[in-house]
Input
Amino acid sequence: MHLVTTRGCFLAVLATACWPSLTPPALADDAAIATGRSVVHRSLDAIDLVTINKDLKVAVPTVDVAIYLGETDSKPHGYVASPDELVDSFKRAKAIFATAGVQLKLLWVKRAVVPASWLAVQANDVTGFPAPPEINTYVGYRSAGWRLTKEANRAFCGIIERHAENHRTIYLLYLKQVRMAYYDRTMKDRPQIKSIPTGGLSLPAYLFETRIPRRIRGVITICRQRGKGGRTIAHELGHKLINVSHEHRKIGPQFEVRGEGGLMIYGRGTEIPSGKAGRWHRERLHLSPFVYRTKKDGSRRWNADYREGGHYYDPLYGDKVVRFGVMTPPKRPKQDRRSNK
Output
């Protein structure tokens, strides 16, 4: 996830507690949607799906990806005027995952005309309290019990159309601003709840488990249009498909960490390593419930689904997990720098 952060800030693991919701009251245009006004979907005909998908092969692990460009009647999304930039970003993400033996299939790119308030949402309510850095991060994530806000749930469910494979499909929702709530521990022993804008938010199973409606569990929000978008898409897909936090080889999982080489840390790396030394990233990717293989007759054979909602130690992954205690200390991000999650 792309975050705006503060020097010296450690985004602490959260554990269960009750805090006020950050969800604002519904606006008038939201009420109109709720009483029957539909979201308007329009295909972006400038995107040639046949050409993008022409390299797909039978029997190769595949992930379906659908894209929605959020916009209003008065202001079309920027990619409407520059679709080649979106295509290039998606192709870059395809190439990154191809090196790990997984192909991405683009189902569609649609413009979604929505209320303006849906383009800027608070993603999660703050739950929990700060836990010490030495705690097993994934155990802390389970305790946190993160949930979508009502406004995020309303927007995501309103934009994503219903179909039989909703729960197996990845949805990239291009919105204007999506904020994430967290604990800022810049001041020792005085953590504060903050909400910051994100460039990309994967809403992964290791954080949310079954607390996202099943039919939209594949949602990923993207709020950046310029720059190296392909790496951004691939990084967010990594959170969703590999189902890990920011980690790489000897670098333990945490909210923010920079380094060289790995797709799942802040930087320029694209590696999806394998084996115990690679924290089983490639193996976990190939076990993802979003992955299927097409048979010669055109039918699909899907991977098994999560058994316990998709937490990091879900039995689906067997021994493809890392048992750990103290985490490797993170490198501090630069002040006000946007980076990946």
Q: What stands out?
A: The helical segments are 28-34, 49-52, 83-98, 137-144, 150-159, 205-208, 229-242, 281-287. The radius of gyration is 19 Å. Residues 2-36, 326-333, 335-341 have pLDDT under 50 and may be disordered. The first strand starts at residue 3 and ends at 4.
